[in-house]
Amino acid sequence: MADKLNIAVIGSGISGISPAFILSKNHNVSLFEKNNYIGGHTNTVTTDENVRVDTGFIVMNDKTYPNLTAFLDKLKINRIKTDMSFGYCDRKKDFYYSTSSLDTIFAQRKNILDLSYYKFLYEIMKFFKLTKKFITYGNNDLCIGQFLELNNFSKSFEEKYILPMASAIWSAPQDKIARFPMLSFANFYNNHGLLSVTDQPQWYFVENGSSSYVDAFLKGFNGKVFKNKKAVSVKQNLNNPEIVFEDSEVLKFDKIIIAAHADEAFKMLENPDPDQVKLLGPWTYSKNRVCLHHDLSFMPDNKRAYASWNYLKEENMEKNSPACITYDMTRLQKLNSEKRYLVTLNPQREIEKNKLIKEIIYTHPVFTRETMETQDRLQRLNNKNKNIFFCGSYFGYGFHEDGINSGIKVCKIFGESL
Ligand SMILES: Cc1cc2nc3c(=O)[nH]c(=O)nc-3n(C[C@H](O)[C@H](O)[C@H](O)COP(=O)(O)OP(=O)(O)OC[C@H]3O[C@@H](n4cnc5c(N)ncnc54)[C@H](O)[C@@H]3O)c2cc1C
Fold first, then answer.
1. Sign (positive/negative) of CA torsion 56, 220, 223, 37?
2. How many whole angstroms separate alpha carbon 131 and alpha carbon 185?
3. CATH architecture of 85-199+285-365
4. Taking burial as the number of CB atoms within 10 A of a residue's CB, which of 118, 136, 141, 293 is the most buried?
5. Which residues of 329-376 form beta strands (DSSP E)?
6. For residue 57, is pLDDT > 60?
């Protein structure tokens, strides 16, 4: 076997943990993280009741997460079935439903006799059909908003179903979702069984909270782990590239893997080359405020309309308001606790102080035509003649499988696999 390399991984989310795990079998790996915990968006909070609640990454499925499934199996981490129902509630217009079952689709009993509600349900089926067809002939020149307009979907369908649901999935404001390239959206929806009532994959959460896999990784990891260690610059045009840290320490490595978000990765590069400028430069990230709490006013008034993901339309919300969604963690993680645990993304009003447990800021990649156009070429940044490599969920749709997938691809360049 070739000599062991000294490899640095910057960023300890799934995109950094996966190459650190794989490459540490045959190399010396150092993992650097600017936060005071390892895991990035994998962040389980232990509450005063000793309940472990996820605040970032929560769910995966058995169809579109093959690498993550294999990774968790290696770490001997269990997954438990959960449901991924979506609920919408507009208090002002007194309109709500949840997709759990026929009973919850008609959670609001007056809809049983309302013809306009049947038109709404018909439009959902029409959307499934036309979107599936679009995959066979469409392209990314069209965005979601244009697709809806071209096919005469009503404003009501847009406002009460497709935009809030997609805005919840990508944690993005509705106006940004309307500009999301249609073909990428259609492929994602199709792969995740979201264009069918019956073809949905089985979803799982990680037993005892998603950070359990981070703990298992750390337990078996034979490399070095550094928390509170922010990389501020990467000097790449050297035989042995260097990382300059915020505390002024400078360390040399044979290879450096940057598993931070694209904008952060770009910012730390000294003298970026033209490809790095073209491919990393366009990426921006949106800040999302995430609150863990017990305030039930963020759930629908009617318990029958409770879903795993609850989109609550508040009176002050505009199309460019940040996505506001409440995850019912008690339901999603099957928590056994007296109080109901909720995680709200971007609450549009204050959460009752005595019910707020924790507040965290996470950032998400903003997918636009410009950023998505870079994706076909992002792998160009990584080749065996270079000393600096990149991975992150921005190589795909922004989810956990995209992060681990990009990490595994970098390891292939080193001749290593999961
Ligand atoms: C609320 C929420 C819920 C989500 N739910 C799901 C879900 O259920 N399923 C799913 O598949 N995906 C989900 N996601 C998407 C999630 O973002 C991705 O799944 C994935 O976790 C992103 O991983 P990553 O490693 O690319 O980025 P991150 O997890 O963000 O990791 C990047 C790390 O790099 C570190 N870093 C950055 N700059 C530096 C620096 N200069 N020096 C040192 N360290 C640095 C950061 O601190 C961070 O820890 C969710 C995201 C959020 C926020």
1. positive
2. 9
3. Alpha-Beta Complex (3.90)
4. 293
5. 342-345, 356-365
6. yes
Atom nearest to 229 CA in ligand 1: 43
Alpha-carbon distance of 220 to 59, in angstroms, equals 24
The residue contributing the CA closest to ligand 1 atom 27 is 13
At the second CATH level, the architecture of 6-43+211-282+367-413 is 3-Layer(bba) Sandwich (3.50)
- Helix (H) or strand (E) holding 19, with range, is helix 14-23
Average pLDDT across the chain, whole number: 94
Distance between CA atoms of 204 and 61, rounded to whole angstroms? 6
Phi, psi of 104 (to 5 degrees): -85, -25
Give the residue, out of 36, 44, 57, 401, with the most ligand 1 atoms within 8 A of its beta carbon, to mutate for a pocket test: 57
The response to whether residue 77 sits with its C-beta less than 6 Å from ligand 1 reads no
Q: Which of 196, 194, 102, 118 is nearest to 157 (CA)?
A: 118
Nearest 5°: the CA angle 127, 119, 189 is 20
| Rounded alpha-carbon distances, angstroms, from residue 364 to 101, 284, 299 | 31, 9, 24
Domain ranges of the chain: 6-43+211-282+367-413, 85-199+285-365
